[in-house]
Amino acid sequence: MPNAIFGFDTPNLGDDVQALAAAALLPGVDAIIDRDRLDKVRLERRHRVIMNSWFAVKRYRGAPSPDLDPTYFGYCVGREELLNDVWLAAWRRAAPVGLRDLHSVETLSAAGVACRFSGCLTTWMGRFIKPVEKREGVVFVDVPEVMEAFIPAALSDRAERITNYTTRAIQFDQRARWRAAAGICDRLRSAEMVVTRRLHVALPCVGFGTPVMVYLEGTRKNRRRFSGHDRFLPIVFHDGARPVDGLAWVEPRTVEPPSEIEDGFLALAESFDAPVAPRWASVADVAKSIPDTPRVPRSGWSLFRRS
User: Fold this and answer.
1) What is the pTM of this model?
2) What pLDDT digit, counting tens, does each position of 86-139 carry?
3) Backbone φ and ψ of 138, nearest 5°
4) I need a surface site. Which of 75, 138, 231, 239 has the fewest CB within 10 A?
5) Residues 175, 63: one domain?
6) Taking the CA of residue 174 as centre, how many other CA atoms within 13 Å lie in the half-sphere pointing to its CB?
7) What is the radius of gyration, based on Cα positions, of the chain?
């Protein structure tokens, strides 16, 4: 069966990192589909798709069309509006649903849907990429400026600062987005260490073997998004002005995912006949391998486009 991955025009390149993680695992990519219009997808043949993403933007009844064979791994229930008859039926057909965070697990369990904590596929992206020969530099990705006061000056003075935000120049250009996201990932895998507030920066670092730590504002939304991952990622929570919980700084370190989600990842790879081995020279090579085909459904309409 052919395979599809998600395409995006959101302001966040972390979405594209998740798509690249799927492309790195899959034996090939045959279609690009709009995550937020899955009910409108029409394909000549049924395609498999790994549902590793945050759902959903505005269209809360947009469950996968019959032309898609969804595998739920790394799915995030981002809106309570998803708890409707359309999505409940879709989840129950595919149960047990692999969920990205423990809040999503609690949400679907309370709705009577069989589910489990799978983690996010980006955690294992590095398993498919050849390791770098040399690491150089400290990288900060969207670190809040106020938190830099708590980072040792020996690190912050030489840090390279990059962002996961898109620019308007590439936001609606899918290939440019993949190139940009791949460039960020390749920088992460060659860094000496990374400090970030981004989930889809921290998790790729796990698979790349890059020492990482997270400065995270301790809002309810953020704690929900990181729930489960906070068991193994080194995180310092802050209130927007200063660290809380009596911890101001932790040294970035390499991380191994816990066995409960490692086993699920290996089962996912086996279900797609994907050897867990470094077959790509770089994440940029993964991006280049994705065919230059229009996103389905073909439309100039966008949830994010502004005049």
Assistant:
1) 0.96
2) 999 999 999 999 999 999 999 999 999 999 999 999 999 999 999 999 999 999
3) -100, 130
4) 239
5) no
6) 20
7) 19
